[in-house]
Amino acid sequence: MENSHKSSLDSLSTVADACRLFDATELELLPVHNWQNQLIGHVSDFEVRKFILNGGKFSESIAGLLSPAPVEQFPAKTNSEGAIRDNLAVLMVGGAGTRLRPLTDNCPKPLLPVQGKPLLERTVEHLTWYGFRRFCFAVGYMADSIIDYFGDGSRWGVEIDYVREEKRLGTCGALRLLPEKPKETFLVMNGDLITGVKYDNLLRFHQRSLSLATVCVSPFEIPVPYGVVDCEGIKMTALREKPVNKFWISAGIYLLEPEAIDLIPTGGAEYDMPTLLQSIAATSETVAVYPIREKWIDIGSVDEYERANKEPLVSYAASGAIPPGSPTKTLTNIDKDRPANSATLTATPDR
To answer: What is the pLDDT of residues 192-206, one digit of tens each?
Structure first.
């Protein structure tokens, strides 16, 4: 049902409608109006993501997610206001990219061109769009090539420090080598990702969850090409024809509180992010799970690299290169190439 509020839902809207509007407006809360255009409540991005994480369907009504709220509680989007945040972004870019050989024989994976621009440069521009100005790159394989290209970051209006991994430290062991311990929530991210994640929403989700860590997850499906028989002893209980097993996989994007670093052993031993997250989960602290409904490509194989070079991508110009409020993006749609419970960002291609 149509109403006169461009950033509003109505009582007949579905979860898919809410996702499209959240991604178009980048609001945290969306007002909901009835057929008389009277405000009847709101739906939050936080609750929608929880709903999706728990197996909810995009085709379902938003009625079950509706909460009352006065209109003054609805915040404006913040990513396009040019706000600079103090949060540190740590990018793990030390891998050798062995699965991409021979492409990575003479070029580190973060510098591989994706539609004419180095992969890591796309990530820096994306994060800069959302206000990040402080970066630390954990480098290893062909480190000098990365350092020579990015330097101190001034070309992008940011500050870049470097941590050299003289030996493999795992996916988070390098955090012990940071020049100084972060003073507030910081981002840790694999350096081989193409994603449309909206970091404002991610940070708000993390803050609202009151967690020590937040792990981003993406849906993944494994189809079984046969009929699967369930049984108890010799008795068949069900026969499922070509079922699809659905999982939430770690997307390689994390938010951590500074205290999380204290759980990483000293001494330079290899230490991976799954171990850290499980250590946190074993305490009284919480690890929140943030389901990504935006585009997400892990460039860990030649096939995924080719996919990244073919699919439409959002173009985030370097700091100051495009006016605030004018990213080249459109409404979110359900991508036919993605799992059915995942929405992805559709955008104009780079020129």
So the answer is: 898 888 898 899 889
CB 130 within 8 A of CB 79: yes
Pairwise CA distance, residues 166 & 94, whole Å? 10
Using CA atoms in the order 131, 214, 185, 93, what is the torsion angle rounded to 10 degrees?
Answer: -70
Q: Is residue 24 within 8 Å of 35, Cβ to Cβ?
A: no
Cis omega (within 30 of 0) for bond into 102: yes
Q: Of 23, 47, 73, at which residue does a domain stop?
A: 73
Distance in angstroms (rounded) separating the CA atoms of residues 135 and 160: 5
Among residues 308, 328, 346, the one where a domain terminates is: 308
pLDDT in tens, 121-161: 999 999 998 889 999 998 888 888 989 999 999 999 899 99
276 falls within a domain: yes
Q: Tens digits of per-residue pLDDT, 58-112? A: 888 888 787 775 544 444 444 544 578 889 999 998 787 778 788 778 888 888 8
Rg (CA), the chain: 21
Domain of 296: which CATH number?
A: 3.90.550.10
Q: DSSP 3-state helix, strand, coil percentages of the chain (rounded to 5)?
A: 25, 30, 45
Alpha-carbon gap, residue 157 to 128, rounded angstroms? 8
pLDDT band at 20 (very low <50, low <70, confident <90, very high): confident
DSSP 75: P
6 is catalytic: no
Q: What range does the domain containing 187 cover? A: 79-217+245-308
Same domain, 51 and 161: no
Q: Could you tell me which of 149, 122, 152 has the C-alpha nearest to residue 135? A: 152
Q: Of the residues 57, 117, 183, 242, which is catalytic?
A: 242
Is 94 part of a structural domain of the chain?
A: yes
In a domain, 326, yes or no: no
Q: What is the pTM of this model?
A: 0.78
Rounded Cα–Cα distance for residues 284 and 212 (Å): 10
Strands (E), 199-294: 213-223, 227-232, 235-241, 244-256, 287-291
Token reading at 65: 């997610």
CB 108 within 8 A of CB 145: yes
Residues 166 and 295 in one domain: yes
